[in-house]
């Protein structure tokens, strides 16, 4: 056992309405970013761009190319299976066929290629006022590392409907996947995106939601597998009273790059947003990135927003980046705060637990599970919680019995 | 009957540039049913002694021995020392976010006993022990030490001791920060365990007031990394009146 010190903890907590703090104010407004269906509107990222500076772009050349899905005779690049019960209509949408493209306009090269190379998007429509008793499942199974797969899902939840949609990624592929969510007025929609890929999988994603008047939207990103996962989870509002919760849980091992970006565009009055991402890292070169953008526009009076990211570094050689960006164009808000920190595994906690007879493995499990406990409580979807806990235990068993590097 | 023997224990701590020697040959033997009060000025190494016996990785043993019924404690891991019957109530108990007290206690008890406690008895034991220590049952669902007041942390340490039932307990300033009522409640807790299990106690303190409730069989004056003088109860009273000057000047 070694004693590690908290090296890189920065903690800015603004408990009340607070516009101070030392969040970054980006050079360019988040609103000014290029948005286009045209692949050529985006150059191939070099890694020097602000939005790509953390990403290992050299490993993503395949995904940046404007290439069709690598479907072969009787052998799709990725199998897509949809499971839905009463109250749900499943169909397809061509480019330009509404509501496809009304919410999601690609914001980077990956999303533009996904859009341009998906002839028929999957359209999942939930009838107005339908309250689904079972989740809608979309299982994406990659059929081979390096095989290009492009996907676009349009989820349309009618007014006052209630639904849980689980998007589950397994297997391996070079996958670009867009998700476009229309949350009708007064609807309650939870989207879970599970990244349980094999090690060789690469995944770029833009998940874009428009939250209706008085509607509730929850997006939960769970990233455990995959060589590179880079997911943008974005939200804006169609009217006042909308509530958005963006959650993320990730666990990176040696060689993995898991990047989550969120953007809440407060473009309507009296809406709320809560962004919470938590991640653990272990092993050499394990890498995570969280960039949380919040833009509070002049018209967004009375809104309340809070974003938080915490990272727990379990071993040497892992690195977590955490960047909250807050742009505020009106002073008339109920609250705006953020907190971000990256801490080393606390050996004082380990000592305390072990001094009560608890073995080192068990003590580590307790501390890591404890670290995730609050976000897991927020997820509120039992089957996802179970999947996640099992995955965390499996991840931990990888490094158990090994003493962490000093 | 259990014996903890500390023989000529020397301990240093790594500082930025060098190792700093803190314990300079400590000799102390504690048997079951005995209470040894350790009193000494700030920085004399009392907590270092407690941590070194418990196996904190920050402290390096450079010489001497610690034996529990003849077994080499220094060769054991931190968890094994606790399983062997040692308990340390810490001066500054650590917060463990996201781990509830009830989960923590059950996991600790299971680890010490080598099997999970029978649920019905266990729930009753925890409830009873919390009641006796006047702890609100709500603490069971709170995270370990998180947001606990100083006094609540100390009660929580004694709660663990009552449930774990160690053979030898080191109480590092468990009395500091307690008001008179809490001091009584906590002392009663220690005495209950002593009566029930014949616990041997090393009681580190700055004040004689706790010795009104927990009777010491021996009092040791700890100065500059070693035991400078040993005696009975009356030595504590003398220390309270005279302070440590006599020992400090003698040491120069
Ligand atoms: N990590 C460390 N680096 C440098 N010095 C240390 C370290 N840990 C302990 N010490 C020093 O060791 C000495 C003994 O500390 P210790 O905590 O054991 O004293 P104590 O007798 O328990 O004091 P108190 O009565 O204040 O609790 C002190 O001088 C302290 O500053
Ligand atoms: Mg001390």
Write up what this structure looks like.
The complex is a heterodimer of chains A (406) and B (252). Chain A is mainly β and 406 residues long. Chain A has one domain. Chain A contains five helices and 16 strands. Chain A has a 16-stranded mixed β-sheet that branches. The longest helix of chain A is centred in the last third of the chain and has 20 residues. Chain A is globular, with a radius of gyration of 21 Å. Chain B has 252 residues and is α/β, with parallel strands linked by helices. Chain B has one domain: Rossmann fold. In chain B, the strands form three sheets. In chain B, strands 6-9-10-3-11-12 form a six-stranded mixed β-sheet, with helices on both faces. A four-stranded antiparallel β-sheet of chain B has the order 2-1-4-5. A two-stranded antiparallel ribbon of chain B has the order 7-8. In chain B, strand 4 and strand 5 form a beta hairpin. Chain B starts with a strand and ends with a helix. The mean pLDDT of chain B is 95. Classes of the chains: A mainly beta (406), B alpha/beta (252). Chains A and B meet through helix 3 and helix 4 of A and helix 2, strand 7, helix 3 and strand 8 of B. The structure holds adenosine-5'-triphosphate and magnesium ion (MG).
Q: In a nutshell, what does this entry contain?
A:
The complex is a heterodimer of chains A (406) and B (252). Chain A is mainly beta and 406 residues long.
Low-confidence stretches of chain A: 1-22
Please describe the biggest sheet of chain A, giving its number of strands, its sense, and whether it closes into a barrel: 16 strands, mixed
Low-confidence spans of chain B: none
Second-tier CATH architecture of chain B = 3-Layer(aba) Sandwich
Quick check: average pLDDT of chain B? 95
Query: How many helices of chain A in DSSP terms?
Result: 5
Average pLDDT taken over every residue of chain A = 91
DSSP strand content of chain B: 25-35%
Rounded to the nearest angstrom, the radius of gyration of chain B is 18 Å
Whole-angstrom Rg of chain A: 21 Å
Query: What share of the residues of chain A lie within helices?
Result: 10-25%
Q: How many strands in all of chain A? A: 16
Shape of chain A: globular
Main β-sheet, spatial strand arrangement of chain B: 6-9-10-3-11-12
How many structural domains of chain B? 1
Quickly count the domains of chain A: 1
Oligomer state equals: heterodimer
Secondary-structure element pattern of chain A, one letter each:
HEEHEEEEEEEEEEEEEEHHH
State the end-to-end CA separation of chain B: 40 Å
Beta-strand level of the residues of chain A, as a percent range? Answer: 35-45%
């Amino acid at each position: 056992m070694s004693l590690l010190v908290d090296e890189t903890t920065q903690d800015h907590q603004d408990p009340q309405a607070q516009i101070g703090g030392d969040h970054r104010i980006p050079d360019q407004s988040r609103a000014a970013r290029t948005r286009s269906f045209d692949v050529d509107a985006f150059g191939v990222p070099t890694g020097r761009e602000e939005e790509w500076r953390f990403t290992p772009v050299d490993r993503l050349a395949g995904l940046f190319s404007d290439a069709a899905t690598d479907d072969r005779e009787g052998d799709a690049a990725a199998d897509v299976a949809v499971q839905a019960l009463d109250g749900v209509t499943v169909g397809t949408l061509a480019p330009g066929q509404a509501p496809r493209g009304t919410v999601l306009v690609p914001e980077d090269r990956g999303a533009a290629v996904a859009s341009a190379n998906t002839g028929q998007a999957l359209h999942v429509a939930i009838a107005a006022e339908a309250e689904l008793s079972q989740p809608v499942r979309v299982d994406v199974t990659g059929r081979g590392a390096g095989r290009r797969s492009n996907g676009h899902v349009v989820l349309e939840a009618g007014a006052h409907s209630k639904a849980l949609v689980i998007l589950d990624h397994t297997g391996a592929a070079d996958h670009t996947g867009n998700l476009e969510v229309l949350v009708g007025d007064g609807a309650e929609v939870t989207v879970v995106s599970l990244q349980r890929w094999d090690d060789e999988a690469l995944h770029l994603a833009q998940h874009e939601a428009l939250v209706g008047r008085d509607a509730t939207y929850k997006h939960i990103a769970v990233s455990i597998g995959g060589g590179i996962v880079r997911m943008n989870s974005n939200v804006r509002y169609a009217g006042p009273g909308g509530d958005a919760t963006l959650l993320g849980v990730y666990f990176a091992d040696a060689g993995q790059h898991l990047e989550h970006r969120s953007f809440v565009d407060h473009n309507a009055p009296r809406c709320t947003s809560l962004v919470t991402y938590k991640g653990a890292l272990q092993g050499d070169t394990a890498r995570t990135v969280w960039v949380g953008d919040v833009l509070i526009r002049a018209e967004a009076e009375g809104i309340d927003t809070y974003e938080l990211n915490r990272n727990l570094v379990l071993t040497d050689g892992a690195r977590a980046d955490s960047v909250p960006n807050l742009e505020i164009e009106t002073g008339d808000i109920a609250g705006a705060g953020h907190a971000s920190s990256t801490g080393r595994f606390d050996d004082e906690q380990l000592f305390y637990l072990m001094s009560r007879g608890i073995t080192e493995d068990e003590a580590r499990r307790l501390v890591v599970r404890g670290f995730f406990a609050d976000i897991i409580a927020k997820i509120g979807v039992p089957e996802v919680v179970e999947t996640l806990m099992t995955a965390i235990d499996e991840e931990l068993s990888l490094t158990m019995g090994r003493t962490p590097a000093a | 009957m259990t014996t903890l023997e500390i023989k000529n224990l020397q301990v240093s701590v790594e500082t930025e540039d060098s190792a700093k020697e803190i314990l300079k040959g400590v000799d102390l033997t504690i048997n079951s049913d005995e209470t040894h009060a350790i009193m000494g000025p700030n920085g004399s190494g009392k907590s270092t002694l407690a941590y070194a016996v418990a196996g904190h990785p920050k402290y390096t043993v450079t010489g001497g021995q610690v034996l529990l019924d003849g077994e080499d404690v220094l060769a054991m891991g931190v968890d094994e020392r606790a399983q062997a019957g040692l308990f340390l109530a810490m001066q500054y108990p650590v917060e463990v976010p996201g781990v509830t007290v009830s989960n923590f206690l059950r996991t600790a008890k299971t680890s010490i006993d080598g099997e999970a406690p029978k649920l019905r008895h266990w729930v009753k034991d925890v409830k009873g022990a919390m009641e006796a220590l006047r702890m609100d049952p709500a603490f069971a669902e709170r995270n370990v030490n998180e947001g606990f007041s100083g006094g609540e942390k100390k009660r929580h340490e004694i709660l663990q001791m009552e449930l774990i039932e160690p053979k030898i307990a080191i109480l590092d300033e468990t009395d500091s920060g307690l008001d008179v009522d809490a001091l009584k409640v906590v002392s009663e807790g220690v005495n209950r365990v002593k009566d029930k299990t014949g616990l041997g106690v090393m009681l580190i303190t700055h004040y004689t007031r706790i010795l009104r409730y927990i009777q010491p069989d021996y009092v040791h004056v700890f100065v500059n990394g070693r035991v400078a003088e040993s005696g009975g109860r009356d030595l504590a009273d003398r220390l309270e009146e005279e302070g440590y000057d006599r020992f400090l000047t003698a040491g120069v």
